[in-house]
Amino acid sequence: MNIKTSAPGKLMLFGEHAVVYGYPCIVTTVSPRIYVEVEKTSGLLKIDSPQFKDTRFVQETVKLFCEKYNVNNNLLIKTHSDFSSQYGFGSSSAVTVATILALSKLFQTEISKKEVFDLGYKVVINVQGVGSGFDIAAAVFGGTIYFVTGGKVIEPLFVKNLSLVIGYSGVKADTSSIVKNLEFRIHNSESEYKKIFEKIGKIVEEAKISLVKNDWKTTGELMNKNHRLLQELGVSTEKLDKMCHAAINVGAFGAKLSGAGGGDCMIALASSNKIKKVELAIIKAGGEIINVKCNI
Predict the structure, then answer these.
(1) Tell me, what DSSP letter sits at residue 105?
(2) Does the annotation count 174 as an active-site position?
(3) How far is 253 from 268, CA to CA, in rounded Å?
(4) What is the DSSP string of 230-265?
(5) Distance (Å, whole) CA 218 – CA 130
(6) DSSP state of 213
(7) Which region, left, alpha or beta, applies to residue 151 given φ > 0 means left and ψ of -120 to 50 means alpha?
(8) pLDDT for the residue 85
(9) Half-sphere exposure (CA, 13 Å, Cβ side) for 32?
C-alpha cells in the first residue's frame, strides 16, 4: 500500500524571535507544499529525498512515530517539494508534518491535529535544539493562526484577501544559528531585550484584530513598527531594510522582514492596484519576487 500526503509551507506575519521567548506570533501558510509517499518494505528504512540533502527531520519523525505507536520502520519514504528549500518557508516542518500524516494513515493510527503538532514539535526540538513550533502549527492547522510558544495557544484567524508581496533577498538564512546568536546576546542584556519582545507582543495583539477586520492601513503600520523592533534586535540586514523601504515608498501599507532575518525574505502588504509597483520597487532594490499565495 502506497500512502501520499502533503503539508504547506509557512510565512511569518508578526512576532518572529519574540515567539521563542513565550510571546505570541501570527503565521500564515503559503501555497507551495511538500509531498510525502510512504510504503512498507521488507528491508531497512530508505529515504528518497532528491531535493533535500538533510533527511534528519524525516529520520527523527520515523523514529519517534515508531517508538510511540510500536510499529516497525521497514519503510520506503519519498519526498517531493513545490518550493526550493533556500527560501525560509519551513520546509523542515512541512516534511515533518507530512511524514507524520503519511505514517498515521499507513499504520491506520487515529491521531488528532494537536497530537500531530506535539509529535512534530518534539522532532524539531530533537533535531535543531531550538524552535517555538509555529511552523509545525502552520503545517498542521493551515490558514492564518495566532500562536503562543510550544502550542500553548493555537487559534485560527479568519483573514480574507490577504494581499502580500514576498521579496527574497538572495541570501539563505540559517535560522537556528541566528536564534542561538540572539540568545547569547540576550544573556548579556536581558532587560533591554525583554522590553523589545514586550513591544513586539503588543504589536501581535493589535495585528490579530486589524487582520480579521481587514484594516490594512493599521496592519501595515504595525508591520513597519515590528520591522523597526527587529532592526533593534539586530536581525535585519541592509538589503532587507532597502527592500522594505522601497516597497513603502511606492505605496505599500507596510513592510517587514519575515522569519529569522539575516537574509531570506521580506513581505509587503499592498492593495491589489499597487502590487505591480511594489514588486518592481523590490526588484529595483535587488530583491527577487516569490510568487506564492498566502493564507491557504
Answers:
(1) H
(2) no
(3) 7
(4) HHHHT---HHHHHHHHHHHHTT-SEEEEESS-SSSE
(5) 32
(6) T
(7) left
(8) 63
(9) 19
Do 68 and 110 contact (CB within 8 A), yes or no?
A: no
The per-residue pLDDT for 209 is 98
Q: Answer whether CATH 3.40.30.10 is correct for domain 164-289.
A: no
Q: Report the pLDDT value the prediction gives residue 109, as an integer from 0 to 100.
A: 96
Q: Quick check: 228 and 257 in contact, CB under 8 A?
A: no
Specify the 3-state DSSP secondary structure of 64: helix
pTM of the model: 0.93
Owner of C-alpha cell 503588543 = 202
From the options 3.30.470.10, 3.30.230.10, 3.40.630.30, 1.20.1600.10, give the CATH code of 2-157.
3.30.230.10
Taking Cα atoms as reference points, which of 10, 63, 61 lies closest to residue 34?
Answer: 10
pLDDT, block means (10 residues), the chain with 296 residues: 94 94 95 94 91 88 97 95 74 94 97 97 92 94 96 96 94 76 76 91 98 98 98 93 98 95 92 97 96 85
How confident is the model at residue 53, as a pLDDT?
74
Domain ranges within the chain, ordered by starting residue: 2-157, 164-289
Amino acid at 267: I
Catalytic residue among 135, 174, 241, 264: 135
What is the model's pLDDT at position 1?
84
